[in-house]
Amino acid sequence: MTVREFARWMEERIPSCLSESWDNDGVMVMPDENAGITGVLCALDATSVAIDEALKRGCNVIVTHHPLVFRPVGRVVSGDSVGKRIIACVRNGITVLSYHTRLDSMEGGVNDCLADAVGLEDRVSFLPFARIGKVESQPFESFVSSVSRALGTDRIRCVKARPDVRTVALVSGSGKDEIRAAIDAGADTFLTGEVMHNHAIDCMEYGLNLICATHFATERIVVPFLGKLVREAGLRAEEYVFDEVREYGI
Taking the mean position of all CA atoms in its chain, how far away is CA 207? Predict the structure, then answer.
């Protein structure tokens, strides 16, 4: 399978029609669309370390959740965070494909992976990329502990606005703009990766429990799903789940 054929294959399974209008995802870098694929590294981000890891593992394609190129690039120079990675990919013949908000929204994607991880049952979408469902009624502290274990992080920040948890809404990554929608959907608890200070105050005022489990932890759980998709294409998939920025708790 060539790089171009694989990109088309992925487009059929994670279609661009699911992307938010402000997003930039899909093909990020493609030095040679006719190159045969030697292996695919699946990662959360196409960091410099991930690019090096792809080279070590003999992979000439990287599939990520977060876009390597998110905003328009005015110039490509080695002194720029994005530019140096584009240059590294082109020099080494590495294609980068990123599936961002379309992967958030798609069935089985990021938010469904997160819902599975925390045991959300009877879940439905209340926004294209947001899920709401039920857990066994339990004290807030008990549910926070279960989230910590499920996501493998102790970097959790909370707002306890009520004592118990039963109906949970979730948005992986940054869910600061979906708080009102979660309340309107009937949630008593909102799980996301990050919000700002004023959003935490909003949750307390609204009586909505808030659990922020870091952007990294609420999204890295999609990497095995990406690996599964790649294997369905008959290709070798390598899953790279370490992220250098996790030490900052973001």
Answer: 27
Q: Which domain holds residue 142?
A: 107-218
pTM score, whole prediction: 0.94
Q: What φ, ψ does residue 194 adopt, rounded to 5°?
A: -160, 150
Backbone angles phi, psi at 62, to 5 degrees: -120, 130
Q: How far is CA 57 from CA 70, 93, 101, 166, in A?
A: 26, 14, 28, 44
What sign for the dihedral angle of Cα 187, 191, 194, 200?
A: positive
Structure-token pair, residue 155: 């970097």
The number of folded domains in the chain is 2
Q: How far is CA 171 from CA 26, 81, 143, 215, in A?
A: 21, 27, 16, 10
Residue 102's SS3 state is helix
What's the CA gap between 81 and 91, in Å, rounded?
Answer: 16
148 three-state secondary structure: helix
Q: Tens digit of pLDDT for each residue in 195-239?
A: 999 999 999 999 999 999 999 999 999 999 999 999 999 999 999
3-state SS assignment for residue 6: helix
CATH code where residue 59 lies: 3.40.1390.30
